[in-house]
Amino acid sequence: MGDNVTPGAEGxxxxxxxxxxxxxxxxxxxxxxxVLAGCGGEGGATPAADLKGKEIAKTADIPVGGGKVYGxxxxxxxxxxxxxxxxxxxxxxxxxCTLGGVANGLINCPCHGSEFAIADGSVRxxxxxxxxxxxxVQVKGGGVVVT
Length: 147
Known about the structure:
Blueprint: H1 20-40, H2 48-51, E1 55-58, E2 66-70, E3 75-81, E4 84-89, E5 101-103, E6 106-108, E7 115-117, E8 123-125, E9 134-135, E10 137-140, E11 143-146
Antiparallel strand pairs: 1-11, 2-3, 3-4, 4-9, 5-6, 6-7, 7-8, 10-11
């Protein structure tokens, strides 16, 4: 009953063919992996050591009370108060989605609706339970640089 091979479906060398159920299971597995890739397949946060000394944003691009996601470096830069810049990983702590944007003082995840505070990366709305990892930054010549 476990075999999914039609009698007489053996190849010329006597090997058994792949059963229909095995093919369907493989297709279902591939489809499931594609769905999960949208949430967890984007990789983790960029290590701070890889960003050290790098200008990750221009101060003029970051509005007071807002921020901007930089997908290439997987960072989000915010300015919770005039002249106070923060940088966090742009990878959601729930299932690894890249964060989608910043609005109303919150960093938003488009996958499952988690929200994080722009001032400290703390969770304001789940399902995420862990805060965003913060990168140390300073302003140098009009740019936000990881230190």
